[in-house]
From TrEMBL:
<dbReference type="GO" id="GO:0032259">
    <property type="term" value="P:methylation"/>
</dbReference>
<feature type="binding site">
    <location>
        <position position="342"/>
    </location>
    <ligand>
        <name>Zn(2+)</name>
    </ligand>
</feature>
<keyword id="KW-0479">Metal-binding</keyword>
<protein>
    <recommendedName>
        <fullName>Hcy-binding domain-containing protein</fullName>
    </recommendedName>
</protein>
<feature type="binding site">
    <location>
        <position position="274"/>
    </location>
    <ligand>
        <name>Zn(2+)</name>
    </ligand>
</feature>
<dbReference type="GO" id="GO:0008898">
    <property type="term" value="F:S-adenosylmethionine-homocysteine S-methyltransferase activity"/>
</dbReference>
<dbReference type="InterPro" id="IPR051486">
    <property type="entry name" value="Hcy_S-methyltransferase"/>
</dbReference>
<dbReference type="GO" id="GO:0033528">
    <property type="term" value="P:S-methylmethionine cycle"/>
</dbReference>
<dbReference type="Pfam" id="PF02574">
    <property type="entry name" value="S-methyl_trans"/>
</dbReference>
<feature type="binding site">
    <location>
        <position position="343"/>
    </location>
    <ligand>
        <name>Zn(2+)</name>
    </ligand>
</feature>
<dbReference type="InterPro" id="IPR003726">
    <property type="entry name" value="HCY_dom"/>
</dbReference>
<dbReference type="GO" id="GO:0046872">
    <property type="term" value="F:metal ion binding"/>
</dbReference>
<feature type="domain" description="Hcy-binding">
    <location>
        <begin position="12"/>
        <end position="357"/>
    </location>
</feature>
<dbReference type="InterPro" id="IPR036589">
    <property type="entry name" value="HCY_dom_sf"/>
</dbReference>
<keyword id="KW-0489">Methyltransferase</keyword>
<keyword id="KW-0808">Transferase</keyword>
<dbReference type="GO" id="GO:0009086">
    <property type="term" value="P:methionine biosynthetic process"/>
</dbReference>
Length: 361
């Protein structure tokens, strides 16, 4: 049985890419889109994907008692589902759940006792359900007669995968340590921290796990070991974070990090996210030296988050959507096959990526 699961896992991404024509589009940033649809981004959960929220904000959130019922019931669910739908309509074939944000609930649950473990786990599962609901709605719309989806009289719809996001321990630390966790944080610390979340998300109905914004090789190793120990029934991708285009954010070698993912049987793609576009090409070339697994890249807009000002600021590396997509051909030539966007990218970015890729030979 075990062998069967691993075999199915290992071919999920290659089979998917084959069905998609050799490359696939991943979705884009979440926070900006939620804001556009009316979410209040002062709530730290929404901005958590890139902004490591501070403990006092978490405490503030604790007293926002309306939060849990909103999230699990109606308003926020609708907003999140709408953002997933926007990305599907923009051409994304992989949508990533909002569970990166939800994991902050676990911090609250751990340090304050106002939420039960069951309630916290419910929120995680709900993040996957919402993405799956969006996929169903999208498929229903596609089959409602749009000629775009009818080929030779048959309904042709591209496959869509739901990836359950797991964020790093660094986001929990919220201390700007850039993945330098120190000697006190061991492999065991990291495995203990991530185990329950992985168990829940692996059985949530998602197609794969997206380990995102991994800052160091210790955390990559923890994920690889957890996947094996838990005999996880769905595969995962390992996506690292870099600030200099040479190493991952902690200073560990991207080659070593990618090698850890490469030797993990349940890893089906390796890549980079939340990193400025100008660094991606070199990183893809490095990753290619360590693995023949598909390479996933979803850079941010190139803007920098200023924690002091609590806002995104433009830097010399900022690219508009047209410029962002001008990199795509180069990234594809270098060996990447899954393309999307992270913080501050929008459905317009994803639409532009889809358009460029559809013209690639
Ligand atoms: Zn990001």
């Amino acid at each position: 049985m075990e062998l069967g699961i691993v075999e199915t896992s290992s071919t999920l991404m290659t089979d998917f890419l084959q069905k998609c024509g050799g490359y696939a589009v991943v979705d884009g940033g979440f926070a900006t889109e939620l804001e556009r649809h009316g979410a209040d981004l002062n709530d730290p959960l929404w901005s958590a994907k890139c902004l490591f929220s501070s403990p006092h904000l978490v405490r503030k959130l604790l007293f926002s008692t309306a939060f849990l019922s909103c999230w699990s019931m109606t308003e926020y669910s609708c907003l999140i589902r709408q953002v997933h739908l926007d990305y599907l309509h923009a051409g994304a074939s992989i949508i990533i759940t909002a569970s990166y944000q939800v994991f902050l609930i676990f911090i609250i649950q751990l340090y304050y006792t106002s939420l039960s473990e069951e309630e916290a786990e419910l929120l995680l599962r709900r993040s996957v359900e919402i993405a799956c609901e969006a996929r169903e709605i999208y498929f229903d719309k596609c089959t409602e007669g749009s000629s775009d989806y009818i080929e030779s009289g048959n309904i042709s719809r591209r496959p869509v995968l739901v990836a359950a996001s797991i964020g790093s321990y660094g986001a929990y630390l919220a201390d700007g340590s850039d993945g330098k966790y120190g000697d006190a944080v061991t492999l065991k610390t990291l495995k203990d921290f991530h185990r329950r979340r992985l168990q829940i998300l692996a059985k949530s109905g998602a197609d794969l796990i997206a380990f995102e914004t991994i800052p160091n090789k210790l955390e990559a190793k923890a994920y690889a070991e957890l996947l094996e120990e838990e005999e996880t029934n769905i595969p995962a991708w390992f996506s690292f974070n870099s600030k200099d285009g040479i190493n991952v954010v902690s200073g560990d070698s991207i080659l070593e990090c990618a090698s850890i993912a490469d030797s993990c049987k349940r890893a089906v793609a390796v890549g980079i996210n939340c990193t400025p576009p100008r660094f991606i090409h070199g990183l893809v070339l490095s990753i290619q030296k360590a693995t023949s697994k598909p390479i996933v890249i979803y850079p941010n807009s190139g803007e920098t988050y200023n924690a002091g000002l609590k806002q995104w600021t433009k830097s010399s590396g900022v690219v508009v959507d047209e410029d962002f997509v001008s990199y795509i051909g180069k990234w594809r030539e270098a060996g990447a096959s899954l393309f999307g966007g992270c913080c501050r990218t929008t459905p317009n970015t994803i639409r532009a990526i889809s358009r460029v890729l559809s013209k690639c030979p």
